[in-house]
Structures are given as C-alpha cells and as structure tokens.
Amino acid sequence: MFYNKKLYKEVFERHKSINVDELVVITGSIGGGPFREVKNLPIKSKVIFGAYGQKNCIPLPQHKELLKWNKEIEGLEIYYSKSYVHSKAYIWFKNKNIISALVGSANFSQNGLYKNYSEILCDITNDSMKDLTNYLNMVLNNSIKCDEELIKICKGNNKPLFKTKKLYDPNVCSMTLLDKGKIPEGSGINWG
Question: How high is the pLDDT of residue 182?
C-alpha cells in the first residue's frame, strides 16, 4: 500500500491491527511532536536518529529534548547513528521478527508525519524483509544510546531549535518587477 496522508495514524495505530510487541524507527531528521504519540503506545519503541552521524555531534537543545523523552517514556530507547543515515523506516516486530514495515520519505517529525501529501510511506513486501533486517542490524550496530557519555555536542550551534526568523526586511532589500511603473513584456526574472 501507498500512504500520503495521516501518516501518523499508519505509524501509531498499526499495532492495533497486527500482533506486535515493538516498533523500531530509523529516521534522518527527528522532532519532538511524534514522541507525544510514542508515550501512548502499549509496545516498546526504538528510535534511531540518523543525522547525528553527519557531523557526529548534536546541538545541545535537541540533545536535551531527546534525553527528556528517552527518560520520560517507559519502553523507549533513543539511539544516535554514528554514520550518517538519511533513510526513513518504521518496522514492527513480534518476538524479534519483523511483522510489518513502512519505508518512504517521512521523517519522525511533525512535518514528516502530520502534513498531508508532503511525504509518503509504503509497505515493504515479504521478499524484502531479510534485506531490511540486515540494514536495520547494520544501522543499529553502528549506533549509540542517546544517554551515553560518548555523545558529542556541536560547538557554536546551541541556539533554540524553533526560533522564528524574519523572512523579509524592507531595509535590507527591495525589488520591483515593474519597468517605469509597467510590467515589462519580457524579463530575466520569472515574473509571470
């Protein structure tokens, strides 16, 4: 199946229709929103943050937020991949065997799971389960728990995560597409 809306329902309600005991998530980017849903899951969860491996460090505010979720949510373990991983996979297990999996473009974040039509997830077929298991094991074996002392904090990047930026400042730049008060017949700028 192909999914492109209400992805959070596919991720956080699939356990209701299949007999599973664990959800493992591999994600490039990560955000706090989905952890509110994880908190209500009746199964164990692992989330592997792949972008940590891009610089092998994490901004302090993001690290603190993930540590908070890791501590507060019973049955949750958050890992940081030491190698850059940009994939997105949602994998359900029963007794350590994959029962179901979704892959696609949806990160484990507010934008990834809660915005309709901007991301996709697709079911993995049975003939791909072995390859997915091997991939997951490779990523997990190269990951460290978020509460380990080996975690490095990025220097100089400890600003708040969700700071609103002013996108337009008329004192910095102004531009018009008019030529002597009229729209030109042609332009180097895509004005039409």
Answer: 54
Burial of 166 by CB count in 10 Å (0-12 exposed, 13-18 middle, 19+ buried)? Answer: exposed
Query: 54 by DSSP, 3-state: which?
Result: helix
Rounded distance between C-alpha atoms, residue 90 and residue 81, angstroms: 16
Under DSSP, the state recorded for 82 is S
Average model confidence (pLDDT) across the chain: 86
Q: What is the DSSP string of 18-52?
A: S--SEEEEEESSB-SHHHHHHTT-SSEEEEEESTH
pLDDT tens digits, one per residue of 162-173: 443 444 444 444
User: Residue 49's beta-bridge partner residues?
Assistant: 27, 80
| CA separation for the pair 58, 80 (Å, rounded) | 9
Sign of the four-CA dihedral 114, 167, 29, 32 = negative
Amino acid letter, 183: I
First to last CA, the chain: 39
Pairing of the two strands 22-27 and 89-94: antiparallel
pLDDT at 24 over 60: yes
